[in-house]
Description:
The chain is built from 13 helices and nine strands. The protein is of the alpha+beta class and 351 residues long.
Amino acid sequence: MKAVSIERLETGMILARTVTNDDMVIVLSEGTLLNDSHITRLKMLDIPVVYIKDDFDLSQNYQQASAVIKKNAAFSHDFDVVAKYAEDVFKSIKDGDMPKEKTDKVAAHILPMADNSGTIDFLFSLSHLNTSLALHSERVAILAGILAKWMHFNWEEIRVVVSAAFLHDVGKIKFPERLIDKDVSKMNDEDLAEYKKHCVDGEQILKKAGFSDIIQKVALSHHEKMNGTGFPNALSAEAIHPYARIVAVADTYDNLTSERPGEVKQTPFYAVSYFVREIYSSLDPVVCVPLLNRIKDSLIGSHITLSNGKKGIVAMYPNDFSALPIISLEDGSSIDINKFPDISITKYEPI
């Protein structure tokens, strides 16, 4: 292991120690195989020196280095393995069984995925249509686990959040065929009333199966809004269970950034803008603030393309609570796209 200044870093080097910022938030994890974007991020955050594995370290940790190179592929593999269990769980429920042991197994497999550095980027890289109940439930469970971790929940609390998030939409197994792939915003009054029943149906299914009150409450109230405009009971603020508020944010993030038939998959930048708008109305700021802070940090150094065709790198976010970043363009100039509402980020390459 050796200390290397940021100016001397090269792509292909491997971090020997986790890098944190002044707030002790992880910037890059030990074992990260550095690329241009990682190095740019470290420079943008004014981190002067990092520890790099030397030749001896690398020879002793060849398998680990090889695993780092394939980290994204490994996450995708793990996701697909869990997805098969998840599909089996929801099929069993639809057939009238509630396989609690299988559900616990899914949650146990999801926990380490939620603890994985880079999970937000890995999830964005997946190409799965959002119409599968099992896949959506798995993604929301992973995201909810990440949020609970960022909110400094203990391990047992995170486990319960993950389990509740995985089962939050279980009531949708009772959906009529016409609603399965239908966009909520395009539903007529009859369909919307049928759609809203999935919260109550979910609570009843989980109650009958003997799941805890907390998991039942999350299924019932994950569509409630902090300002009282949600359903099924128009609850507001503290009347909504804290875990349901976490799942609401995770559910919203997944809906915004996942592929859906007939809709464009939005970038994390779009999601950040959405949460900034909703943070003091429909969504809980206690959940949103850690999400926004962590995602903003993770996006620094990313290569992007703007709607005007220009390309650049995310340099920083303004010190205020701005929704969008300052971009360092290829021609050497910079642009704060908060000041140009007609310009948006249309393409994003995860680090």
